[in-house]
Amino acid sequence: MLKIGDTLPSATVYEYIEVEGNGCSLGPNAFDVAKACAGKKIAIFALPGAYTPTCSAQHLPGYVQAAEAFKAAGVDEIWCLSVNDAFVMGAWGRENAAGGKVRMMADGSADFTRAVDLVLDLTAKGLGVRSQRYSMLVDNGVVKTLNIEGPGKFEVSDAATLLAQARA
């Protein structure tokens, strides 16, 4: 399982880009996690699924609202990571005014989630393989803080907790 001090693996995630530019085409674009984190300080939070109750009501909105505070704390980017496809993540981001604040990263095949060993198996509930709920601060690809939630919990991966860690 991923731990503080680990380097993030080279896995592909996807982001739905709405405006063509900066080497990105319109629609889903692939990003290698290790390359995308190089030379940057990134706040990453992962959750079981787009449009799910806690994720929609608290998790994502908290990071959208705190985006400027994260920038002031020296964080270059905020990523929301979920085992959903890029179209779903893009639509969910639009509905939550995440544009320019939180990058909505899709791990549709759970490749990154498996690589960091933070899989949440919800097949018994008809939801398939998902990501555990967690947050982390990554500096140049290295995990500096890691907050993994217990099953069904939302206590340590919220924006306020990670922001306090980014400011420390």
Automatic annotation (TrEMBL):
It comes from the Bacteria. The active site is at residue 55. InterPro entries: PRX5-like, Redoxin, Thioredoxin-like_sf, Thioredoxin_domain. Keywords: Antioxidant, Oxidoreductase, Peroxidase, Redox-active center. GO terms for biological process: cell redox homeostasis; cellular response to oxidative stress; hydrogen peroxide catabolic process. Pfam families: Redoxin. It catalyses: a hydroperoxide + 2 glutathione = an alcohol + glutathione disulfide + H2O. Residues 2-168 form the Thioredoxin domain. It is an enzyme of class 1 (oxidoreductase). Its EC number is 1.11.1.27. The keyword Flavoprotein does not apply. One of its GO terms (molecular function) is thioredoxin peroxidase activity. One of its GO terms (cellular component) is cytoplasm. Gene3D superfamilies: Glutaredoxin. SUPFAM superfamilies: Thioredoxin-like (SSF52833). Thiol-specific peroxidase that catalyzes the reduction of hydrogen peroxide and organic hydroperoxides to water and alcohols, respectively. Plays a role in cell protection against oxidative stress by detoxifying peroxides. Belongs to the peroxiredoxin family. Prx5 subfamily. This is Glutathione-dependent peroxiredoxin. It comes from Sphaerotilus natans subsp. natans DSM 6575.
